[in-house]
Design a protein that fits this description.
Structural class: alpha+beta
Shape: globular
Radius of gyration: 15 Å
Distance between the termini: 40 Å
Number of helices: 4
Number of strands: 7
Strand order of the largest sheet: 1-2-7-6-5-4-3
Order of helices and strands: EEHHEEEEEHH
CATH topology: Alpha-D-Glucose-1,6-Bisphosphate, Chain A, domain 4
Length: 190
Amino acid sequence: MTTPGEGSGGRTPHEYCVVTAPGVIRFERVLPGPIERVWAYLTESDKRGKWLAKGRMDLRVGGSVALEFRHADLSPQTEVVPEKYKKYQEGATTRGRITACDPPRVLGYTGGEEQGPDTEVTFALSPRGQDVLLVLTHRLLEDPDSTRSVAGGWHTHLGILTDVLAGRTPLPFWTTHARLENEYERRLAR
């Protein structure tokens, strides 16, 4: 029997991100396939909204991206938003541009153009039998604090994606993110 929320917590060390260079983190996840299903959860607003953020993507290099984050909607469990993130309680939108699009294998986009220098996220998918290997690389992170926060956020979102694809109820975003952000504080300390 599967425990609800199993994917949300990062139960084994290989689930944590790896810092591959200053300002660059990388995650790997094996997800239930097929690859076209995982691609749909990266690119279709209604499916992406179940684990990350709804919003429009013009799926072509140079196309616009608008991600509308509603973290409280990612799990049926209610929770209190940590004080540090209260400004996101009603949601947040980030905008960027598509940097890579090779369906159903590679999707890349920038984000945060309204807040300063863009960062870039790339998803690479490859079949592994009936499963799919997802490799997420996030580049151009400005400093160690943002790297830890972004690592905790992606870890939480990827756990929710894993749960959604496996038919499990995800753990609440903010509680899980706070725990993982603290763990990355420890793991990525200088």
